Amino acid sequence: MSENEEARRQTDAILTQAAEICARSAPPGTTPIEQLLDAFFGFLDARTDFFDDVERAGRAVGDALGRTSRGRDARAAMRAAEREAREASERTTKAAREAARAREARESEKQRVEALKQRQLEMAMKKSEGKLTEIAEGDAAAANEAKADDDDEEEDPNALKPGTMMPNKGNGGDAEKYVWTQTLDDVDVRVAVPPGTKSKQVRCDFTMDTFSFHLVDASGKRIEPAFEGKFHAPIAPDDCYWTLEDNAYVVCFLQKLKTSEWWPCVLVGDPEIDTRRAEPETSRLADLDGDTRATVEKMMYDQRQKSLGLPTADEQSKHDALKNFMAAHPEMNFDNCKFDGVDNFRPN
């Protein structure tokens, strides 16, 4: 501690003690401050020559008041600057936290969309396996069924069934709160939601037989669009999912449990379409992207080869590699070789 600071500390202690004495002895009608000033100036008058030059005394008092006022202003400015710096730091920290939360939300949404895409690819491959050779047959059966229904009708074959409507271009229809399309294997339900809707506001639940959909507001209160009901036919819940598109539409993918049939409606009681007017797809492979289509076509080829007792594409590739190796080494005898892991290989 410097000498000035020590002197200031001792002076402050003395004046504090004097202020306490003045507060106890102040006459009625005066304040402790007035009493302290009277005592201080009385001290200067009695013990010093301070008041011998009144003008000098006035200037000294004025200078002291000026220094004190400037000191107060400086301390107030410093406190304001410290407060502004603290608030700026808090704003920066808050902005950083919000930016981090936004990044986490974007990354979470990106991961969710990627997971949905992966799930869709897996489902496309799963649907294709074991039934790829029946694609045309399934569509033909549906067309024959529609034709048989037409043959049973004695009325105008171009007329819609009573109480039904014409299917839309996606072989579905328009309900009060959603639009739907379908193939022989699945159903897509598209629900328009208020622009800016977030995924956390969507409540979309499937069971094998029931479907429930609604939104919630910030307080968790149920809001429109909201609907629920029983499916026209059972679905496979584990193969169903929903996604939010452009924060304006919720698209629900429903996998039919019983495939190769048309649904007249999604939920029992909703407007029905005339399934006789549904148009079978000539080739569902055209709906797949390039990579998925190549995978599916390879699976179709492998399945056809297996049914004929011939090598699959991978097996044929291994066979060709072995034959090339054998041709390049005629000096070697491969008659008694065992080719582990290479099925159906015939060296000759």
Architecture overview:
This is HSP20-like chaperone. One of its GO terms (cellular component) is cytoplasm. It is found in: Cytoplasm. Residues 141-175 are annotated as: Disordered. Residues 71-119 form a coiled coil. This protein is α+β, with helices and mostly antiparallel strands. Among the domains are: 114-294, Immunoglobulin-like, CATH 2.60.40; 311-348, no CATH class. It has 6 helices and 10 strands, in the order ααααββββββββββαα. It has helices at 3-25, 32-47, 54-128, 135-152, 290-307, 313-328; strands at residues 164-165, 173-174, 179-182, 186-192, 202-206, 210-216, 222-230, 241-245, 249-255, 272-273. A 5-stranded antiparallel sheet has the order 2-3-4-9-8, with no helix packed on it. A 3-stranded antiparallel sheet has the order 5-6-7, with no helix packed on it. The chain has a two-stranded parallel sheet with strand order 1-10. A hairpin with a 3-residue loop joins strand 8 and strand 9 (249-255). The longest helix is centred in the first third of the chain and has 75 residues, at 54-128. The protein starts with a helix and ends in a 20-residue tail after the last helix. The model has no long low-confidence stretch (mean pLDDT 82).
* Class inferred from helices and paired strands: alpha+beta
Tell me the Rg in angstroms.
Answer: 44 Å
User: Mind summarizing the main beta sheet?
Assistant: 5 strands, antiparallel
Assign an overall shape: elongated
The total count of strands amounts to 10
- Write the CATH architecture name of the domain at 114-294: Sandwich
Mean pLDDT: 82
Spatial strand order of the main sheet: 2-3-4-9-8
Q: Kindly state the percentage of residues in helix.
A: 40-55%
What letter string, H or E per element, gives the SSE order?
A: HHHHEEEEEEEEEEHH
CATH top level label of the domain at 114-294: Mainly Beta
- Examine the coordinates and then state which fold CATH places here, giving the name of the CATH topology of the domain at 114-294: Immunoglobulin-like
How many helical elements? Answer: 6
| Strand proportion | 5-15%
Distance from N terminus to C terminus (CA atoms, Å) equals 104 Å
pLDDT < 50 stretches: none
